[in-house]
Amino acid sequence: MVGANLKAETITLMEKRSALEAEMDAIISRLCQPDGPSLSGNLVDSEGFPRTDIDIPVVRAERRRLSELRNDHNFITDKINENIQLLHSVRLSSVSSSVKDSDNGAGSNSQNSSVVIVVPSASSHDIVPRDSSAAMDVHVIVSKLFSVIDEITDASPAAEDGLQLGDQIVKFGNVEAGDNLLGRLATEGRTNQGHAIPVVIMRQGATINLSVTPRPWQGRGLLGFYCMLVDAIFGSCSWLCFLFMDWRTCLRLKVFSQLQ
């Protein structure tokens, strides 16, 4: 009964998160249109006067709303992951009881770290429907997510190859959660320019396997997205600017120098 309630709650949270993502996409599209203010562009001209080509109060309101949506998105994502871990714990407890009843001494609770549930898809770009029982099945592979895509540029290689805002990265090429993520991600991207990199992501509770190819395009960098790096040690998130975005656009970040 607990498992069923958790599944229902998690599906509802996924639907709320999808609605947040849709609103975030709409705001980002408006702010990032040609000659627009972008997400963090100056609201004054070169002489220090307010820009006359944009509606400054509206821009400020939309940026503020986007910040609120991101906070809500992070909160809901954390709750979804918490529920999934609980579902996994319920499954492990059930398996453990069955094993004891059958006098089998082999333990099954080897996955006790912070995890997400991964449902393998049949092929690249296949998605497990979020409303299906498979999407919430606890008979799944367990793996850690290590970053969440926070910004992605339209028409960028990342967008064209299938990545979307809010995608949770579980595996990027040979990189999975662990130590020295920044250096490993940078190396993985640089050494694979022009070559497809297999990526495993979580999206709305489903696992998607796809490929992205770092390559030059009309924008900056090789892929064109930002993400938040999940800090497995401190349980928090820090901003990460991939080498796939031009580091000169990321002076606000503390890690840009590691990705030059």
Automatic annotation (TrEMBL):
GO terms for cellular component: cytoplasm; nucleus. It comes from the Eukaryota. The keyword Chaperone applies. SUPFAM superfamilies: PDZ domain-like (SSF50156). The chain crosses the membrane at residues 223-245. Pfam families: Nas2_N. Signal peptide: none annotated. Residues 12-89 form the Nas2 N-terminal domain. InterPro entries: Nas2_N (IPR040815), PDZ_sf (IPR036034), PSMD9 (IPR035269). Keywords: Chaperone, Membrane, Transmembrane, Transmembrane helix. The keyword Membrane applies. One of its GO terms (biological process) is proteasome regulatory particle assembly. PANTHER family: 26S PROTEASOME NON-ATPASE REGULATORY SUBUNIT 9. This is Nas2 N-terminal domain-containing protein.
